[in-house]
Design brief:
Elements lengths: L7 H5 L6 E3 L1 H4 L1 H14 L2 E5 L8 E7 L2 E7 L5 E5 L14 E3 L3 E3 L6 E3 L4 E3 L25 E5 L2 E5 L7 H5 L4 H8 L6 E2 L5 E5 L3 H7 L6 H4 L1 H14 L8 H6 L6 H7 L1 E3 L5 E3 L15 H9 L1 H9 L5 E3 L3 E4 L4 E9 L2 E8 L1 E2 L4 H15 L6 H14 L7 E3 L14 E3 L5 H25 L1
Antiparallel strand pairs: 1-21, 2-11, 3-4, 3-6, 4-5, 7-8, 8-9, 10-11, 12-20, 13-19, 14-15, 14-22, 15-16, 16-17, 17-18, 18-19
Protein name: Oxidoreductase
Organism: Bradyrhizobium zhanjiangense
Family: Belongs to the bacterial ring-hydroxylating dioxygenase alpha subunit family.
Length: 446
């Protein structure tokens, strides 16, 4: 297949009821269309408000191919703009984060902008008198992104000026963010350290799919987590206390039956999560004093509701995964058709015992880091898939596990925990938001 540009029908043909064509992973043209259509029409995670604690603080990010930045203004408000000087197009900020002081200054010609993006000053401004500069877009300063939503300090943006609203896009899936934030006795999270960043040589969608793939852990991780569990059982002797490290990687060897019973919840627009009835995070040791803090903050009934909702992985389509029980967010940032930058963020529960933050940091290092015990297993599978999909023996990927011919799309449902329906859910959303962008561009062209 080839020649997809602007052709919504050919894009739709890549996604069948329970199969997807290999081109969605390996075709550079498809990748560029994702950058031009899928990401601008989706609500994409930009950052967390705690990264903008003081006026002048800023962070940078990318939405598809578009460089963007967010900053805290002097009045405390947060603004998101395109990271581009309106003069010659130079990026205003190249660092992941920093503090601009009272204003941003372009490093090329020293145009300066307030931290709300408005134009502050231009050197030799007399040279623009009687030129009509006042009527140009450049006079307005940094181009603002109009569709920005800050939900419980999580900053999202949609580049497209029209499309699905934030509320309709996420709907009840925001309950995962609610649960993660509510785990703080003060109802607040904060970022206090840089994320773990590393490159995967595979298509970004492989990582997203893997977050709700429950049929691989006991197979792919047998040589790592499985071996570690065997060593612990051999060496534990008379010890009755399971070390935190073993608590973190041991559940990866849970059997199929465990995952089947745990369940998966799907939501409209490609979102969903594993761990409805049970989770690999369910049996961690209690942290002294934490429950008492939660009961004091929320009351006994509500505290137990919050702490009893232990979801495994929540996928926020298109490219974010949240682990509420250990306060981790992984951002799968597309770089090329076969390259994905992973950012793995850990949030601190404000007001909670430090032991919980230490456990989250340990989980991030043990499971998500380049030096992870189990992470290399997944990476090898992604790389093998990226290579194997070049084979002409079969051009379709099978997602038929527990498929039902009358499956409805864009619904909320709880299903068997080993179903591939959440993957099907993601690809139906992928086709929808890709076509949405193409249809709009086609209208402009006409």
């Amino acid at each position: 297949m080839a020649g997809y540009a602007g052709n919504a029908r050919s894009i739709a043909a890549l996604v069948r009821e329970a199969e997807v064509h290999r081109d969605v992973y390996v075709d550079p043209e498809i990748f560029e269309l994702e950058m031009a259509h899928l990401f601008p029409n989706s609500w994409v995670y930009v950052g967390h408000a705690s990264q903008l604690a003081k006026p002048g603080d800023f962070i940078t990010a990318n939405i598809g191919r578009q460089p963007v930045m967010a900053s805290r203004h002097t009045d405390g408000s947060i603004h998101v703009f395109y990271n581009r000087c309106p003069h010659k197009g130079v990026k205003i900020a190249s660092e992941p984060c920093g503090n601009a002081g009272k204003f941003f200054r372009c490093p090329y010609h020293a145009w300066s902008f307030r931290t709300d993006g408005s134009l502050l000053a231009i050197p030799l401004k007399k040279g623009y008198e009687s030129t009509g500069f006042g009527d140009t877009q450049a006079n307005e300063g940094l181009s603002r992104i109009k569709n920005v939503a800050i939900y419980r300090d999580f900053i999202f943006a949609r580049l497209s000026e029209t499309g699905v609203s934030f509320e309709d896009y996420f709907g009840p899936s925001l309950s995962t963010i609610d649960n993660m934030v509510d785990r703080s006795p003060q109802g607040k999270l904060e970022v206090v350290a840089a994320p773990i960043r590393y490159m995967h040589t595979c298509n970004w969608k492989m990582l997203v799919e893997n977050q709700t793939d429950t049929c691989h852990p006991m197979v792919a991780h047998e040589s790592s987590a499985g071996t570690a569990v065997k060593v612990w059982k051999r060496e534990q002797g008379d010890s009755t206390e399971t070390p935190m490290a073993v608590q973190l990687y041991g559940p990866f060897m849970s059997p199929y039956e465990f995952y089947e019973q745990s369940g998966i919840r799907i939501w409209p627009n490609g979102h969903g999560h594993t761990g409805v009835a049970n989770s690999i995070h369910s049996n961690y040791s209690d942290v002294d004093g934490y429950l008492e803090q939660m009961v004091a903050a929320y009351g006994e009934t509500r505290a137990h509701e919050i702490l009893g909702d232990i979801r495994h992985n929540t996928v926020y389509f298109p490219n974010v995964m949240v682990k509420g029980a250990v306060q981790i967010l992984r951002n799968f940032i597309p770089i090329a058709v076969d390259r994905t930058l992973v950012e793995s963020w850990v949030y601190r529960l404000v007001g909670a015992p430090d032991k919980l933050y230490e456990r989250a940091l340990m989980y991030n290092r043990f499971i998500n880091a380049p030096t992870s015990i189990v992470g290399h297993d997944d990476l090898e599978m992604y790389e093998r898939a990226q290579e194997g999909l070049k084979s002409n023996g079969n051009q379709w990927i099978n997602l038929r596990r527990l498929y039902e011919p009358d499956e409805q799309r864009d619904v909320t449902a709880v299903i068997n925990g080993t179903s591939e329906r959440q993957m099907r859910n993601q690809f139906h959303a992928w086709a929808k938001f890709m076509a949405m962008g193409m249809d709009k561009h086609a209208e402009v062209a006409e």
